[in-house]
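Consider the tokenized backbone below.
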């Protein structure tokens, strides 16, 4: 909660990482809760029953974070915030499955979080392809403008 209240101290992706790492720290500081988490991770029906009704709350939390990131200029303005928030919520549930897969919680789990954050920040497309496509699109737009001005 302090992280979110003091979000101005972070850029968007650092804030997101800190939120996830605080969850890992909480779990490590409260090992008595780990068996409950393991039970939920292994029983999808129970997991859905308990957390399913909170998916909208999670999506709203992420939507607000995304609005913050957009206001910072860290996110593409064309991103649909509702869609992105819903996807982030789903990713959290999937990450829980991946992290709990080995039956323990440790700092190695931050590697999984960092990979997810890398994917969010950089996308799936190779940088060269993205730059090439953007340049190609700009070239086509420029060429179209030039042709439209010919007599």
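A designed sequence for it:
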């Amino acid at each position: 909660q302090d992280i979110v209240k003091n979000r101005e101290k972070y850029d968007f992706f650092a804030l997101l990482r800190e939120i996830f790492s605080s969850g890992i720290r909480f779990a490590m500081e409260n090992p008595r809760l780990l068996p409950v988490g393991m039970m939920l991770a292994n029983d999808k029906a129970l997991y859905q029953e308990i957390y399913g009704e909170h998916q909208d709350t999670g999506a709203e939390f992420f939507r607000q974070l995304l609005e913050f990131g957009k206001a910072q200029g860290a996110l593409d303005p064309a991103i649909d915030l509702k869609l992105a928030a819903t996807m982030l919520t789903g990713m959290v549930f999937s990450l829980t499955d991946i992290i709990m897969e080995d039956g323990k919680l440790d700092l190695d789990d931050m590697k999984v979080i960092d990979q997810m954050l890398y994917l969010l920040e950089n996308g799936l497309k190779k940088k060269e392809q993205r730059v090439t496509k953007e340049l190609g699109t700009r070239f086509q737009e420029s060429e179209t403008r030039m042709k439209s001005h010919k007599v």
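Helices lie at 2-5, 12-29, 34-42, 44-51, 55-72, 81-100, 109-122, 127-148.
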